[in-house]
Design goal:
This protein has 64 residues and is mainly α. It is built from two helices and no strands. It has helices spanning 7-22, 28-63. Helix 1 runs antiparallel to helix 2. The radius of gyration is 16 Å and the shape is elongated. The N and C termini lie far apart (36 Å). 5% of the residues are buried.
Length: 64
Amino acid sequence: MNDEMKYEEALTQLETIARKMESNELNIDEIATQLKTAQRLIKFCKDKLTQTEAELSKIQAEGQ
């Protein structure tokens, strides 16, 4: 995953992959590739949320 990628961009890509899968737009070879991409995007999003939560907790603790 690109370190420059934004959370919103990753989420949009995930939504696109999900839409294509739901509408059967992908052939069998593309499904495997897109699933791997989706897994990386999900991990990126989870990591980004965890990092943001930690930063917010730190800011709250400093403000008390």
